[in-house]
Amino acid sequence: MSFDQYNQDQVIQMSVVDNNGCQNYGLNVFDRPKNTIKETVQLMKQIEEMEDGPEKQKIMQELSKDNHRRMFMGKTQMEKCRLS
Questions:
Q1: Dihedral sign of CA atoms 25, 10, 46, 65 in order
Q2: Using CA atoms, how far apart are residues 46 and 40, in angstroms rounded to an integer?
Q3: What angle in degrees, to the nearest 10, is found between the helix axes of 37-49 and 54-64?
Q4: Burial class (CB within 10 angstroms; exposed 0-12, middle 13-18, buried 19+) of 16
Q5: CA triplet 9, 78, 75: central angle to 5 degrees?
Q6: For residue 79, what is the DSSP state?
Q7: Residue 14 confidence (pLDDT)
Q8: What is the Cα–Cα distance from 84 to 79, expressed in whole angstroms?
Q9: Following DSSP, what letter does each residue of 16-66 receive, concatenated?
Q10: CB neighbour list of residue 46: distance below 8 Å, 6 or more residues apart
């Protein structure tokens, strides 16, 4: 289950991931960039079409610079409970 910021990607997420019996579950809180999700998707499509190189890397870094996980509270695949 997730909650999205208006015209943006999820900012609060409750998740469960099961990878061959190794589970990771918890509550995440994210920071998101100022641009809308539509603008982000368009930029991601442009990046996919680019040749590998420094310009592609620069745009990828720009795209991810304001995306941060601010909090995780739950259990990791390493079976450790944590709050970060």
A1: negative
A2: 10
A3: 160
A4: exposed
A5: 50
A6: S
A7: 93
A8: 15
A9: EEEETTEEEEEEEEEE--SS-HHHHHHHHHHHHHSPSSHHHHHHHHHHHTT
A10: 59
- Write out the two tokens for 31: 């920071």
The pLDDT value given to residue 37: 83
8 Å CB contact between 10 and 4: yes
Edge-to-edge order in the sheet of strand 81-83: 2-4, 10-19, 22-31, 68-75, 81-83
pLDDT, one tens digit for every residue, the chain (84 residues): 777 667 677 888 999 988 888 888 899 998 888 888 888 888 889 889 999 999 998 888 888 888 888 899 988 877 666 666
Q: Give the C-alpha separation, 13 to 61, whole Å.
A: 23
